[in-house]
Amino acid sequence: MKAILFPGQGSQKVGMAKDHYDSNAAFKKRIDQADEILGYDLSKIMFEGPKEKLTQTKFTQPAIFTHSVALYEQQDIKPDMVAGHSLGEFSALVAAGVLSFETALKLVSLRGKLMQEAGNHHPGTMAAIIGMDDDAVDQICEDASEKVGKPVVTANYNSPGQLVISGDVDAVKKAVEIAKDQGCRMAMLLPVSGAFHSPLMEPAYKSFKNRVEEIDFSTANIPLNSNYTAEGTTDPDVLRENVIMQLTNPVQWTKTLINMQDAGATDFIEIGPGKVLQGLVKRTLKSVTIEGYE
């Protein structure tokens, strides 16, 4: 069985999608449509940058989403299930027939703006912790929060021994310090514009929730494993709730991959910029095939 995976923020780079745009008329049409829907030249930011602009969350998210969906539409693949990492869940919602491209793009654009605003309102950051198990990192976050008096939580359970924490700048720095003291292989701050998947995204969550609840979600034509629960479902109400909840909750990616394999997935295919998810599959699962299209 085939499982398609869509990447999230961090996979962007200046020049992304340019080769496909120049050589594939249908791909070009989809990118041009995104420019029209958004009311600005997203394609120019994707192709020419500058990097500082492309890495702004409000531009990064529509760029990765549009690239991923346009690329998916060019593949002759019939997946049995789908999932997307954080932002990638919106690409998965389109691939599973839950949302139209236009509706999802508008939501992604709003999500990016709200997350950037939340980051500006209450500056936060994120850090990668490598070489420690889930329970140890969860405990470090609790200890750091207690010592600093500000929140830091585990935000991404990416693969065994590879986690990302998120929260107030001082609390994240304290957690990194504790992790190093306890002998983690690596702990480093990430270049992000906010504390994603943490309580600091609460202002974005409220506004986003109000908008998403106004939209009709269709029943998925294949199971979609959501970040919030890691469970596969086709239920539109559950999918709607899960995509709202992921803003302030961790991405359960390790469990997602395990659940997809348990449901019968043997061939994993990443579609979108970068190869991050292929690496996470390799570190998490055995006896599966992995490939990607970017």
TrEMBL record:
Keywords recorded for this protein, A-Z: Acyltransferase, Transferase
Record field: catalytic activity: holo-[ACP] + malonyl-CoA = malonyl-[ACP] + CoA
Active site feature: 86, 197
Pfam families from the UniProt entry: Acyl_transf_1
Origin: domain of life: Bacteria
Malonyl-CoA:ACP transacylase (MAT) domain span: 5-294
EC code: 2.3.1.39
Keyword match Acyltransferase: yes
Entry's Gene Ontology molecular function annotations: [acyl-carrier-protein] S-malonyltransferase activity
A GO cellular component entry from the record: cytosol
GO terms classed as biological process: fatty acid biosynthetic process
SMART domains (alphabetical): PKS_AT
Family: Belongs to the fabD family.
Protein known as: Malonyl CoA-acyl carrier protein transacylase
Annotated organism of origin: Rhodohalobacter barkolensis
Lineage, broadest ranks: Bacteria, Pseudomonadati, Balneolota, Balneolia, Balneolales
